[in-house]
């Protein structure tokens, strides 16, 4: 594939190749000499129109560990504030020789538009409420590393599905890789058509307590208040009472089950500190794995030294 825009771009073989390559990259990260020469002479541009901590930094770390040159572009402080369009910004970056553009944008579909305007590869680092495919890849990597497989796993994705690009990409990728996904949350935050539209075998439940005893993975989503109209949102206390993962709820999970969250977290709302910091939590591992997965994505899209 030339671009990574959606979880739907990945068939099972391609996704597995990325996860296997990421596992090889992880061994590099553990070595004393952390750098590979694979992308020497290539330029990766991080084009971020929305705030990010994990994704931007891990793409930067990934590109540098592959010896690429990295240009970090943040819309704040750029000519975007003077009204320059995404297309003109993209053409400017193109003129500077970008081999890959990693883009985060508040508008769903922006990376797809960008892919029509630049010659290099485009990686979607989160577009509006639409998709975040490398987050889904690092989540799948983390599940496979902790539980040994993906096929047949039962995964509950819990909370603000409506605004979650993480949920959409995970539903697509996990379904491709043979996991069974159940979306859990209040009816106002689970779009009525999402399950069937994304993948035919998705279940929906509005009752977290009944779902927990049967899952291998519970993935808590951030409640994205910045994308909501307060009038249709329950109080934080009410939300936590019905859909927050706290200690007693965590103890309803099977012994082997893991707790995930893409970050950033609203501690005390969708997840309590007791759960987030427990041995079942993979939240810090997800961040570590994100670097290896993004190394694999850049390596495979840009072809290393050989293509
Ligand atoms: N998970 C995630 O995308 O985090 P950031 O917004 O910090 O990049």
Automatic annotation (TrEMBL):
PROSITE patterns: CARBAMOYLTRANSFERASE. It comes from the Bacteria. Residues 152-301 form the Aspartate/ornithine carbamoyltransferase Asp/Orn-binding domain. Residues 2-144 form the Aspartate/ornithine carbamoyltransferase carbamoyl-P binding domain. GO terms for biological process: 'de novo' pyrimidine nucleobase biosynthetic process; 'de novo' UMP biosynthetic process; amino acid metabolic process. Pathway: Pyrimidine metabolism; UMP biosynthesis via de novo pathway; (S)-dihydroorotate from bicarbonate: step 2/3. GO terms for molecular function: amino acid binding; aspartate carbamoyltransferase activity. Carbamoyl phosphate binds at residues 54-55, 104, 132, 135, 263-264. It catalyses: carbamoyl phosphate + L-aspartate = N-carbamoyl-L-aspartate + phosphate + H(+). L-aspartate binds at residues 82, 165, 222. InterPro entries: Asp/Orn_carbamoyltranf_P-bd, Asp/Orn_carbamoylTrfase, Asp/Orn_carbamoylTrfase_sf, Asp_carbamoyltransf, Asp_carbamoyltransf_Asp/Orn-bd. Its EC number is 2.1.3.2. Pfam families: OTCace, OTCace_N. Belongs to the aspartate/ornithine carbamoyltransferase superfamily. ATCase family. NCBIfam families: asp_carb_tr, PRK00856.1. Heterododecamer (2C3:3R2) of six catalytic PyrB chains organized as two trimers (C3), and six regulatory PyrI chains organized as three dimers (R2). Catalyzes the condensation of carbamoyl phosphate and aspartate to form carbamoyl aspartate and inorganic phosphate, the committed step in the de novo pyrimidine nucleotide biosynthesis pathway. This is Aspartate carbamoyltransferase. The gene is pyrB.
